[in-house]
Amino acid sequence: MLPDVLPRPDAISPEVYRARRAALMRQLPANAAVLLPGASLVTRSHDSEFPFRQNSDFYYLTGITEPDALLVLLPGAKGSGEGDEDVNGESILFCQERDPTLEAWTGRRLGAEGVVREHGLDQAFENGERDERLRELLQGREQLYVPLVSADAVALAEDAYQQAKAGQRRGQAAVRGWQDISPLIHEMRLIKSAQEIEVLRHAAAISARAHCRAMRAAAPGLFEYQLQAELEHEFMWQGGSGPAYSTIVGGGANGCVLHYIENSAVLKAGELVLIDAGAEFDLYAGDITRTFPVSGTFSAAQRAVYEVVLKAQARAVAAVKPGNTLFDIHQGVVRDLTSGLITLGLLEGDVDARIEDESYRRFYLHSTSHWLGLDVHDVGTYRLDPDTPRPLSPGMALTVEPGLYIPTDDDIPAEYRGIAVRIEDDVVVTESSHEVLTADVPKQVADIEALMAKK
Ligand code: GLY
Ligand code: MN
Ligand code: MN
After folding, report:
1. Which end of the chain is more exposed for a tag (fewer CB within 10 A), N or C?
2. How far apart are CA 294 and CA 273, in angstroms?
3. In this structure, which residue's CA is closest to atom 4 in ligand 1?
4. Which residue minimizes the CA distance to atom 5 of ligand 1?
5. What whole-number distance in Å separates Cα of residue 188 and Cα of residue 231?
6. Which pLDDT tens digit goes with each residue over 180-194?
7. Topology adopted by domain 14-189
């Protein structure tokens, strides 16, 4: 074992993916079929591509990381799984052809046999057979379920529908229409299993290490991208695939730009730096923000703003438990931040009035939380219906990330201008409370200053 490497969680096994497919199929009528394409490579420049990233829904149901695959699910069909085969349904995968010459350039492909052998699909075929086989597989299937966001999936459904018209005239059961599969998969993804939480915990642990590394490395004169390099070094050193989203390193007022990813400025003594960065591990995201002084000590004004955000964040984290809603948690944060802004002298008057007229939005314009999982802004609805925020329940994973972003405008007292603070942790809802996955990066003023003093 290399020094200083966190132990990796166990890989999620093919049986787990099979069980997810079976659980999805059990929610569908027996005359349905699901068509779910995986991701394809995307050109970066001329003939080179961006690193491949599998589609999250496809990965959730297969664990397969090859491009250009198509998953077909046939509920009610006789699968090869354990237990009641009629209920489990059948899973078929179309995948890239084996091609020794291409594989010599771009690496091993599973091929149809490899997919069945290594990933436990019931059947697999190479993409060259796709159109013909799909016609056979979809016989008798009247309702297709596809991700409507995928133009490729909708085109497949439309093809199947056009071909079915002739069959329908002959009185055969055939495709009559299609609808969105995504909400069903996203409901499943919203509640994380113990094993998924283990992977999220690892992505969070890697991300936490990386933030500590950046805090220790920070110094006036470094460029923002040099702290990005420290973070991303740690992500990859620990076996992550890299950042789960574009790393944000904003010195001084750059931290006020919520998705500042240029990371090109020099870090100055006396400024804060806001870092929002998280590792991706096994396709699950970490998502941490910390804000700290470039030269290791907060000024009085920076500290005053920081403490307002820290208090709001701590109270919001404490409110994460079953039954509470993200809406209530956000309202609590808005109240704490607004009251803090009044104490700092950045807003005037009464808390209720400043919440009512939304003047706090000049300093805090984003929401407090989002779901976290295979996507950094993970899937799953936030409301049960337009008027009813969804209560938290065990297995949900989310961020808690209040901030204050003080503009450099002339009407702002000089000592506060351009101060940006965000504090973000990853939290999982447990049976009666919550677990903070990212507690290993300091966020108390004294702890940050102590860590930075150690370098
Ligand atoms: N880094 C994106 C977010 O915090 O939501
Ligand atoms: Mn973030
Ligand atoms: Mn976030």
Report:
1. N
2. 6
3. 287
4. 377
5. 32
6. 999 999 999 999 999
7. Creatine Amidinohydrolase; Chain A, domain 1 (3.40.350)
